[in-house]
Amino acid sequence: MHTRPTTAARQVARLLLCALSLGFAVGCGGKAGISDPMKLVPADSRMVVNINMSRLRQTQFKDRLLALRDRSESLKKKWETLVQKSGMDPVRDIDTIVVTMPYQGEREGGEAALIAMGRFNQPALVAWFKDQAGKDYKQTQHGNRAIHSNAAGNHLAFINSTTGVAGDLNQVKKILDLADGKGQSAAQTPKLVELKSKVTGNQTAWGVVSVPDEVLKRAKDSDSPFKAVTAIVATVDFAAGMEVDFRAECADDNEAKSLTDKFNNVVKELLESPMFGSLGFGGIVSELKGAQEGKVFRVRANLPQQKLDDLIKKVEEAFKAKLGELPKIKLPSTAEGGPKLDDDTKPPASLPADTKDEGKGDEAKAAPDGDGMPSLKLNMPGGGTKAKRRPSLLGQ
Asked: N or C: which end of the chain has fewer CB within 10 A?
């Protein structure tokens, strides 16, 4: 039976959407009475993501995001309803978002939490949350604080008038305890403190990952190019266009060089691909520069505002496009080095019968190189195309 694994990326996306949906906030600096949000992050966290919403509000990128939102009538209506009923505009009122996730071993479910700081109307937000939860709303006590829950497994609590937390119940409780001076935080975890210290300057967003030893051991014999990565530090800023800095610390210099070479080869193949060139992303991908710095594989990109606007425009066009209006692409026939996909209603003949209807599985393999695009294979440990749990940075 096919089981779609829960990934770290899916957990983060769910929590970020939760932040925008719930509309509660946390503030940065003195407003919240918390000088360092890392003091609210549990010590067992292995991934921390910080989004500086105050900085984002000052950028043109924010205006583009709102324009994308407004292209969807349903999303725009939900947003307006949220603001009207909760009195909170997420973009206006959230100052800082911190997402934290511990290592979870082989478990399918995800333990993650989101801390938010800013300005909000707590009674109105709780009333809105209760209305959304309906008969499945539940309130419990943890110490002197209330935890609000719904049937979907979303849990919401408030530390004070400017600080809220949502996510997995166990993580929410840990964060509430840290606010009361109980337990150890990430600010007392040497590895996370070291990684955080490598984030320099004022960034719109940054993230750090400390890969557990158990994950490294399981990944050792896998085909993943990231199997020797021990930690990740990434930043992105939209103050003037988009500036990205991604650093992956590897086990040794050779692993860093191998990862750098693989990345640069993929970029080179993409830029040489006629099909990829026709999509108009060549000028953007060409900004990605992979380099080895000792045991570190590093990628930097600096998109001027015009190139960022072009990228967002392409995304906007994708949002507007409907499936029936998209042009059909006819790839070379098998004799020419690639499959012939004339009939959009039929899956490729080479696709195993038990995966024809799964379309979104991580185990999918790309078409041969005859289409002018570099091949992509996501091999599972042990071979085969059935979905199997594979090592990842967080063991998800």
From this structure: N
